[in-house]
Specification:
Oligomer: single chain
Largest sheet: 4 strands, antiparallel
Structural class: alpha+beta
Radius of gyration: 50 Å
Strand order of the largest sheet: 4-5-6-7
Number of helices: 2
Strand content: 15-25%
Helix content: 10-25%
Number of strands: 7
Distance between the termini: 98 Å
């Protein structure tokens, strides 16, 4: 037999001996029921005893039939489950009837914003309105003085140092456009 096989055999014998010792050392007494932990003085349990013949433990039947202590109001009972109370119905809110709007012509749709960019000011001292606004729509460049019509749709109302006021030709949609320089 090789030394490796001998080591395996010795290890097996040691394991069997340890298992036998553990079996013999294991406690042979059965655990009784847990005592009452709520401090109400529940039924006391007698230690389990059995005679040499292996008969059943002693049972005290009169103690089982004795009256149990009454439950105190407000005390929590972890063994009794109740459904949660139903939520209270929401309070009814009486709303006054909504007035009916008089029917008439539909309101005009709001005007779209003016999409021109104010990119600069040119000063012309020899002409009567000295300031000329330079505007762009992204492709084209427009210029005009106060009161001029740009692109056939917009009128320049006022030219300031950093902004310009414009509106549609009919006077609606007044808008201030800030100087962007680009």
């Amino acid at each position: 037999m090789g030394p490796e096989r001998r080591n395996q055999l010795v290890l097996g014998v040691v394991a069997v001996v340890l298992a036998g010792v553990a079996y013999l050392a294991w406690p042979r007494t059965a655990l009784g029921p847990a005592s009452s932990a709520n401090g109400r003085g529940g039924v006391a349990t007698a230690p389990r005893t059995s005679d040499a013949t292996g008969a059943s433990p002693l049972v005290h039947l009169p103690m089982l039939e004795a009256k149990r202590p009454e439950r105190v109001a407000g005390e929590r009972d972890p063994f009794r489950f109740k459904p949660p109370p139903a939520p209270a119905p929401p309070p009814r809110v009486e709303r006054p009837p909504t007035p009916v709007a008089p029917s008439g012509p539909p309101a005009p749709s709001p005007l779209p914003p003016i999409t021109l960019k104010f990119i600069g000011i040119v000063e012309a001292p020899e002409q009567s309105p000295k300031k000329i606004a330079v505007l762009s729509d992204g492709r084209n460049v427009f210029h005009g003085r106060e009161g001029d019509i740009i692109e056939g749709r917009f009128r320049i109302l006022r030219i300031g140092a950093e902004s310009i006021e414009m509106a549609y030709l009919d006077g609606r949609g007044r808008q201030t456009i800030r100087l962007t320089g680009g």
